[in-house]
Amino acid sequence: MITMHEPTTRRTWLWIAALTLLALALRLGFMTQAYVDHPVRGDAGEYINYAWNIAEHGVFSKQARDTTQPVVPDSFRDPGYPLILAMQIKATPEFGPWYQAVMLTQCILGALTVMCYLLAARRWLPLHWLVAAGMLMAVWPHSVTLPIYIVSESLFAFLLAAAFACIAEATARRSKGWAVGGAAFFTCAALTNAVVLPVAPLLAIAGFIWLRSWRPVWITLLVASLAFSAPWLLRNAALASQDSAGGRAAMNFVQGSWPDYHSAYRTHYLNPGHDDGTLERIDAEVNLIGTDRKAGYDAVLHRLADNPVRYAGWYASKPALLWGWDIQMGDGDIYVYPTVNSPFRTMAPLRALAALIYVLNPLLACLALLGCVASLCRPKEPVAFGIASVLIFVTAVYTILQAEPRYAIAFRGAEMIMATYGMALAAQWVRRRKQRGLTEAPAH
């Protein structure tokens, strides 16, 4: 097993700093060159509505700003990202400077995400593999383009990485204080993307069972994460709004059960009004679940049962779709919204880099799976165990709901850590085979 528990050397710290600065430079460079055609569209419009209502009314609601109706709270989206946007609206109310501040903040968060994952893995990944992971995280095209869009993944990726960095310190130092910090970051991540809401409690329970050396840390993580998330869950439970997190999950479940959803969406996106009615049928099932939950889910299950082979193949293919390359719910390729003057189009070195990573993407996904399996089958390193658990968990959740490659961008750092771990294991296996062959070779 590849593990290293030596004190972090000055050389390691220098590499972490250099890779963090590289990540920041690439993101800032992309931000200064590329620009988004109409950045307020799709999810961005809803996030801005939430942020505006928080800043102006102190109410978490996606209600449009120009309505004359009272602002009604809801729980359709998660509060973390709109709260950050609202703070920036308070500081810079005009759109132009505000949008620049948002992009700059997200570039910094992107670089800090790289730094946090390197801090999390520095004790158990040998330095050359740690550097390889850092290089992949720093230059990954989706992660470089992400900060210029008003979407939650930049913030969410940082919070998740910071949680793992805290857990690494908690287990290395046997520190309950660092475990509380990890619980705080996990909770903030869950309040930015509710998909990971169960992660901290489940990870704490699994760690308590299988990683017994750190049981006080896992108990602290469990108690603190439940305590931190309880107020928001109680607030949502008390709301009467139909725009709820449960309704959004049901919508994603229905959309994700249709193999034709992404193609229908893109047809409508590129040529409004020219789809074949698929979106209307999907919306009808979503609305049925909203009015009669049992009848709605029965309708979905009957549809799946009518063609079990097709849908079994569809669900089996969704993990590959999630970790694929082309963003489906957006402009495609590595772009969430239409992006003009992208350096990945205008600069030959970056075009070549993107092409190389595109080719390597399936291989890296397989290596990450190898790293995850090894970490879970022989759970000795707590951070590797935690990262692997999260990757397997979110892949399962998005396979059930909607497998959109944009959602995977927030987990690319974790994937790269596991992919380089998988490379290290594969290289170790090759070395052992060669050594065995040398020792077993007949003498001449």
Question: Can you give a write-up of this model?
Answer:
- The chain is mainly alpha-helical and about 450 residues long.
- The chain has one domain (about 10-430).
- About 70% of the residues lie in helices and about 0% in strands.
- The chain is built from 20 helices and two strands.
- It has helices at about 10-35, 45-55, 80-90, 95-120, 125-140, 140-145, 155-175, 175-190, 200-210, 215-235, 245-255, 260-270, 280-290, 295-305, 310-320, 345, 350-375, 380-400, 405-410, 410-440, and strands at about 35, 340.
- Strands 1-2 form a two-stranded antiparallel ribbon.
- α1 packs parallel to α5, α13 (about 280-290) packs across α14 (about 295-305) and α18 packs across α20 (about 410-440).
- The longest helix has 30 residues, at about 350-375.
- The radius of gyration is 23 Å and the shape is globular.
- The model has no long low-confidence stretch (mean pLDDT about 90).
In short:
With 444 residues, this protein is an all-alpha fold. The chain contains 20 helices and two strands.
Strand/helix succession: HEHHHHHHHHHHHHHHEHHHHH
State the share of residues found in helices, binned by percent: over 70%
The whole-number mean of residue pLDDT values reads 92
Largest sheet: 2 strands, antiparallel
Radius of gyration of CA atoms, rounded to a whole number: 23 Å
Low-pLDDT stretches: none
Rounded to the nearest angstrom, the distance between the terminal CA atoms is 34 Å
Q: What's the helix count?
A: 20
Structural class: mainly alpha
What order do the strands of the largest sheet run in, or round the barrel if closed? 1-2
Shape designation: globular
Beta fraction: under 5%
